[in-house]
Write a structure and sequence with these properties.
Structural class: alpha+beta
Strand order of the largest sheet: 1-2-3-4-5-6-7-8
Shape: globular
Number of helices: 3
Number of strands: 8
Largest sheet: 8 strands, antiparallel, barrel
Radius of gyration: 17 Å
């Protein structure tokens, strides 16, 4: 963890979003038949949004993870104020995705972060991958991470709970709001 924190700080990374990735596991000992395992999950960015990371710990957010790994490298990171209703329909990635987003908006779930993933090629160069969108419902403090597949169809990758903007992210979002 100390090495990870030092490396992130050296790159000017600040955490924007933190929550718990929730994984369902079969558990025959429970009446529900499942248990939920939680792992800290965070998104970081440098000041201009050109480099960031999706990170995952080995313990839930409320505990101090002993290990943290990079799940995805990100670029073109856009922080969106999901606390506010969408003032006008956003058209981000085509009809399939936009329809999904309009359905989510009806229940108060809105995009909070949009970024492009970055992948390393065998020769060491990098290429852009699928766009990643984190949707957030502030009332429930829940989130979901989506990617876009062929024909810009949304595919849910991760469910999250106990998810919030960090104080740093809130400071950025509040500074963008027009003063009344």
């Amino acid at each position: 963890m100390a090495e990870m924190n030092t490396a992130l700080k050296a790159q000017g990374q600040r955490t924007l979003v933190i929550g718990n990735r929730e994984a369902l596991n079969n558990d025959a000992t429970r009446s529900s038949g499942v248990t939920v395992t939680r792992y800290a999950n965070a998104v970081t960015s440098n000041a201009d949004g050109s480099v960031g990371y999706q990170l995952e710990g080995d313990l839930p957010r409320a505990q101090s993870s002993t290990r943290m790994c990079v799940v995805a490298r990100l670029t073109n990171i856009r922080l969106i104020d999901a606390r506010l209703p969408v003032a006008k329909p956003l058209s981000l990635f085509g009809p399939s995705f936009d329809a999904e987003m309009r359905q989510k908006e009806k229940i108060g779930t809105r995009p909070m972060v949009i970024a492009d993933t970055v992948h390393r090629n065998a020769d060491g160069s990098t290429r852009s991958g699928l766009p990643m969108i984190i949707f957030w419902n502030g009332g429930q403090r829940s989130a979901s991470i989506y990617a876009l597949r062929g024909e810009n169809k949304p595919v849910m990758l991760v469910l999250m709970g106990d998810t919030d903007y960090t104080p740093y992210a809130l400071q950025i979002l509040d500074a963008r709001r027009p003063s009344s």
